[in-house]
Amino acid sequence: MTDVYTTNALRLLQVADDFRAGLSGEFSAIHGISVNEFLLLLHLERSAANRLPRVDLARRMHVSASTITRMAVPMEKVGLIDREVDQRDARLVFVVATTAGRAKLSEALATFSKRAGYLFGDRCEDEEMDQFASMLRRLIAGTGDTLA
Amino acid sequence: MTDVYTTNALRLLQVADDFRAGLSGEFSAIHGISVNEFLLLLHLERSAANRLPRVDLARRMHVSASTITRMAVPMEKVGLIDREVDQRDARLVFVVATTAGRAKLSEALATFSKRAGYLFGDRCEDEEMDQFASMLRRLIAGTGDTLA
DNA sequence: GCGATATGCTTGCACTCGCAGGCGATTCGC
DNA sequence: GCGAATCGCCTGCGAGTGCAAGCATATCGC
Question: Smaller CB count within 10 Å for chain B: N or C?
């Protein structure tokens, strides 16, 4: 528990929780979406042709396939995303971002960046940020479907 | 989105999610507790006299008071924690860790440390870990009820 | 003292999520 | 071709959580 690894892992969880909690409130208040819906749109934006099979989306987002199914329903209803069935494999249902969805993502991303600025802005030197980025990139490595 | 702050915030969320997901499986399989129950016990351990009012616990854990109430029920039943009413203020219900609870925490902490080792061990230099720790400490600063 | 307000805890309701099971589509072995 | 195994998706159920409301206790203004 005085172990550096352990301490850092604990702090990592705490910082991430704090950040996510703050984000959650602002997202639902300003943009009317949840953090997960935001991440879903972001994954689409970072993918080829703004579309992904539901299963891929589930893997990338650390949630089950059923969650994607259920998340998609209201988002389709509001017009943020659309569904599209693959021509070759009728099992694959693609989730594709609409123009409205991409616009919403863009707004939400501005809010995200603002909060990221609050988090790091006045506490860190630029050089530290680069080290931090390099560190985090290595910690993610291995999954492949990285978001950043 | 190519902003360093934004990138780092995204990576931070992703790494934390990955780590928490891995932890969750091992905790429930080996120790029979959830990550949140582990964190609850840890907060108690790091507090004065191994006891905290439910409200404090809620604030520290980023959950609502009702969640603490409901989490406590099965944990009391299993004997990990006990309840204790304040003498001066009968509204305050303290959650206090039992000997069994502290033992369980100790085992779980070993698992936690092991996984923290997996996460950082082969990817980081010792010097980097110190920088990382310093960085994270600053990012947490302000809340006061820090865990690490 | 005594009512008004504030605080801590608990409970009803609604929502989100994962898991298990089922359905339809595809691919593989022969 | 054809049955079996696999894969992607959706639905029933149970677990966990937050919010609003309610209750008990404590504190403040007078």
Answer: N
